Structure formats: structure tokens, C-alpha cells
Amino acid sequence: MSHVICHPSAAHVIKSYSPNLMVHPYMRSSSSLSTGTPTDASIEGGISFALTHIKSLLSRLHVLIIGPGLGRDPMMHSIVAKLIPAAREEGLAIVIDADALMVVQENPELVRGDRGVVLTPNHVEFVRLCKSLGIEMKEDERGELCEKVAKILGGVTVLRKGREDWISNGEVTVRCSVRGGRKRSGGQGDTLTGCVGTFLAWRRAYLEGLWEYVLSPPIFWSGGGQRG
Description:
Elements: E1 3-5, H1 8-15, E2 22-24, H2 43-58, E3 63-66, H3 74-89, E4 93-96, H4 100-106, E5 117-119, H5 123-132, H6 142-152, E6 157-160, E7 165-168, E8 173-176, H7 188-207
Parallel strand pairs: 1-2, 3-4, 4-5, 5-6
Antiparallel strand pairs: 6-7, 7-8
């Protein structure tokens, strides 16, 4: 099941995609201040409103994906910056993509040391991340740079997207050089993020024994109608 947490202006459109989507219009942005209710018509009130409602959902999730469709509104980023620590306290795996990576670039401590966090930067986002960590970029060190970023962030998994994808948690580094489509389609990165989130959700479900079941002993019947 997918819970989509979004801005109220996007809720009706997203809900129309599928009746199976659970859409929660809890996010707040600077543009919504003038139309908000008395409890969330200020920056502080809007952030508090969003966090209160979103945190109430965390215990029901297996994984949290932050970034696709987020945008760059400062208020939205403030909510994300406070939401990440709350998700870590719940022990959730977190996939951070797109504009949410800017929040991490501004404050790497939000994710440092959490091996349940996955960052999925493209080339431009990776360059900004390296710069924020004081790492000098060299194009001939793709794998080494990916590993270095992961180490500096204390074991966070970094999935560096590009012509060749590099994945590292600072200890193990792998390269995916399988040829894909010749033209990148819009939303392809969001699909990858969704796949990563799905795998992490399955991992947690497996570790929690979600799919375990106990078979009761079989029952056999004898010809005389007696249970045997």
C-alpha cells in the first residue's frame, strides 16, 4: 500500500491516479499561508501542522521516500529537515531523491551514520553533494568518489546515477554498466527511487516476519468416518 503525502493543491489530482492510493494533503508551502486555517496560517503553524500529521503515519510505514515532487519551497524543505530525524527514530529506511537531496546537502548531519538511508543523486546532484562535503570532483574517479561520499556520511548508501550507475555504502562498491535506453525519459529517476523503496520495504517485512505462517497438522479421514 502506498501513502502519498503531498500539498493540498496536488491531492485531488494524485488521488485520481488510482483508488488504491492513500493521499494525505498534509504538506504546507509558503504559498499556502494565505489560504491556511487559523492553525496553520503561519510558517511555524504550517510546519507544526504538517509534522504532527505526518509523524502519526510513520508507525504504519515500512519505508519513507522523500523527494519526488517536493520542489524547492523553503517551508517544504523545513518540514523535511524535521521529518528525517523523526523517521530515523522510528527505525525506518529512508530513500532521499530529487529536491530532498538539497536538504541533505545543507545539513549532512541529518543522515550521517544511518545505514538505512539511501541517497539517489544524478550527476548534478552528486556534484553539489560532493561540494557540500568538501570533496574534490574528478571525473575519472566515479567509483572512488561514490565510496568516499558514503564513508564520509558514515555508511549511508549512495546510488550515483549516470551512464554507469555506482552504488556504495562505503565498504562495498558496485557498478552497473548494463546498457539502458538511449534516451532518458522524464520520471525515470522517480521510478528507480520507487523500486529502491519497494526493495527496502520488502526487506523490513521479511525481517519482521510479515510473511511467516504456521501450517497446522494435516487432518486425515479413515473410511469408517473416524478421524485418523
